[in-house]
Amino acid sequence: MKTANSPALWLGYGSALIRAGRAGEAVERLQEYIKLDPANASAIGLLALAQRRADQRSAAIETLKAGLARVEPGIRTNLLLELGQIYEELGRNDDAILQYEQAFDSFTAKGGVTPVNAPLFNEIVTRLVQVCRRSGQQTKLQAVLTRARRLVDEHNPLLDHLTIDMLREDGKRREALDLALAAIRRYPDDRSLKFTEALILTDLRRFNDAAERLRALLKGNPEDATDDATVYLLLGGVQLQAGQLVEAEASIRKAMTLNPDDPEALVQLSSVQDRAGKHTEAEKTLRDLLRRHSDYATALNNLGYQLLERGERFDEALKLIEQAVAIEPINGSFLDSLGWANFKLGRLEKARENLERAMMYSRRNATLHEHLGDVLKELGKLAEARRQWERALEYSIEADEMARLKVKLKDLR
């Protein structure tokens, strides 16, 4: 590419290549630029992203290590976060924790938490908490929370969010709801807490209450269109889980009208269409999205999963899901889809391996437990299959899924 040595031009072109699914080419171009500007933190981070998308994670680690040695100490935090995420993706949790702790130190060295830098601080703490929980490092987890508690002020509900999330992950839904309501009383203007309340109500199968809470957040003003679109998408998700497909589609289409550039709306629309038996329309919706955003991981995963569920084109489905996993290798839903693809292809041990890995990142997912039960049944491990189906039934909130699981458990007697 012949262009002026403008960082904006180079980085813009590199970003465009990544979005177009041309990560390998992006790597080459960004490597050229970094030779000219080796201490540009934005270029280093973007090159590491391109290498991750090209499934070159070892190279991305080396890129970030070299970059961290070159950039000014005051701008290292984002690179440390990127490096920690790659270590997580490779299952190197101790190395990930070390990078996140260094990011924490780098952040605090620049001063306290302010309204401007609070989102970055919250991201650092959240990542540390998640990887400590996943790897069972309770002592380190408590140390992180104690350290964070000293730094947040009365205007930052971070610790409430983290505690609520941990309670939900542990299946303590009522305790999570009580804490969310208490937090809302302390932070009445925090919309994310109110979204969380609606999600917990959905977990408890209180679909009408969840929908009512979300409708109360709609503003109806042109200047609030994007915020309202977010509410309508969440409302559509609640209605989908309640089996209210007509209402769900109407909510999602309202979100699309308010914010037509949000690809997630198309992903949700496809899910509703597929659930309603409109399989051709659902596939078209996702393929249209992928023509514009070829590396949109959720669309890749969902299209592959829909093909599997329809009993069609298993090899294509596997390829699509593998692309999604290459982009987000610690996404429990994607790993579940990968396991299900291998199950459909008769690769039972590989399927079991994928699904058990998925459990590390999505422990209370009913579909995942059901799939693992199906695999174990085919492997002749009936007692283990029963346990997985019983857990799936415990975690399920959708009526058709619960009915299907009850039949499987009855037939296993």
Structure report:
The protein has 413 residues and is an all-alpha fold. Helix content is 76%, strand content 0%. It is built from 23 helices and no strands. Helix 13 runs parallel beside helix 15. The longest helix has 17 residues, at 93-109. The protein is globular and about 65 Å long. It starts with 6 loop residues before the first helix and ends with a helix.
The gist of it:
The protein has 413 residues and is mainly α. The protein has helices spanning 7-19, 23-36, 41-53, 57-70, 77-89, 93-109, 118-134, 138-151, 158-169, 173-186, 191-203, 207-215, 225-241, 245-258, 263-275, 279-292, 297-310, 314-327, 332-344, 348-358, 366-378, 382-395, 399-411.
Q: What would the average pLDDT be, to the nearest integer? A: 94
Number of strands: 0
What are the low-pLDDT stretches, counting only 5+ consecutive residues below 50?
Answer: none
Instruction: Characterize the quaternary organization of these chains.
Output: single chain
Percent helix, as a range, is: over 70%
List the total number of helices. Answer: 23
Order of helices and strands: HHHHHHHHHHHHHHHHHHHHHHH
Structural class: mainly alpha
Our measurement of the CA-to-CA distance between the termini, rounded to an integer number of angstroms, reads: 66 Å
